[in-house]
Amino acid sequence: MDNNVKIYGFADEASPMIDEQIKAMHRNGLAGLEIRNVDGTWIAGVEVDKIREVKAKMDAAGLETWAIGSSIGKIDIETGDFAAHLENLKKMIEFAHILEAKNLRAFSFFIPKGKDPADYKNEVMDRLGKMLDIIRGSGVTFCHENEKGIYGDIAPRCLEILDTFPEIEGVFDTANFVQCGQDTAEAWNMLKHRIKYVHVKDARMSDGVVVPPGKGDGNYSLIIPEYLAQGGTVFTMEPHLTEFVGLAGLEREGEESNVGEISFDSNDAAFDYACNEFKKLF
Rounded distance, CA 153 to CA 187, Å? Predict the structure, then answer.
């Protein structure tokens, strides 16, 4: 593996408890965390004192926080409370400063089922602009992730967002594209020049089931060498191979997570397996 490569993790997939997350990162030789769940509490509900405690523990462990794995932008474009969302965004930026995280993962709003996303383009862009107004100058980079059901769920709409807002960087999640029916090679070729980092999660196009890295239609054999060749260095493990605390909250109500079909003795075992399988791809 290239010595410049850094692998981080949504280590809450190993355990909701931060002490166990740190053990999982050390066990798998990860550089640090994309923080999402702390001691069983979703990041948005964590108190500032707890974040300072996490920072001290991460420092003591020689680990860093790459990004705040927030759910900013993961509300319904029609019914979600956007004003409250903006206040939450300010809190996430404060957390980023405490943890010395330079990146904030965010989304581009759920589109009502059965509606044409094009009808919501102007509203999505207006809201993203308002979010950028808050982030701008903070030293934190707004990183947009493709996600099922949001405006930026497929590559052409992700590109619209990135072209409209040059300050926004892309997060490339292969499994999410697969589950939207988006060919990942096509998506990569369209977006690669704007991708800051890659989420490691794979899935099969035939049934949408999440599988270990390299076992699905994520096209890692194309993406990894091209990403490295253009200077990319960062991957975040988000394998989704087992049910873990908080998984249900990642999906829109009524949607399935399609967690993989391999049986593991524990969340730790599933996380470790995914890390090992991913490293084999280099």
Answer: 11
Alpha carbon of residue 77 to chain centroid: 20
Distance CA 61, CA 19 (A): 10
- Alpha carbons 136 and 144: distance in angstroms, whole number: 15
Q: Which of 157, 181, 165 is nearest to 127 (CA)?
A: 165
pLDDT at residue 3 in the model: 81
Confidence of residue 2 (pLDDT cuts 50, 70, 90): confident
Alpha-carbon distance of 58 to 56, in angstroms, equals 6
**Mean pLDDT confidence for 227-232:** 97
Predicted confidence (pLDDT) at residue 250 exceeds the cutoff of 90: no
- The 8-class DSSP code of residue 219 comes to -
162 secondary structure, DSSP code: H
Residue 151 phi, psi dihedral angles, 5° rounding: -60, -50
Q: Which letter, b or e, does each residue of 130-166 get, where b requires 16 or more Cβ atoms within 10 Å of its Cβ?
A: ebeebbeeeebbbbbbbbbbbbbbbbebbbbbbeebe
Map residue 104 onto helix, strand or coil. strand
Helix, strand, or coil (residue 154): coil
DSSP state for residue 71 in the 8-state scheme: -
* Residue 175 to residue 198: CA distance in whole angstroms: 11
Residue keyed to tokens 């420092």: 59
Convert the pLDDT of each residue in 118-139 to its tens digit.
999 999 999 999 999 999 999 9
pTM greater than 0.70 (yes/no)? yes
DSSP secondary structure, 242-282, as one string:
S--TTSGGGSPTT------S---SSHHHHHHHHHHHHHTT-
| Cβ(89)–Cβ(135) below 8 Å | yes
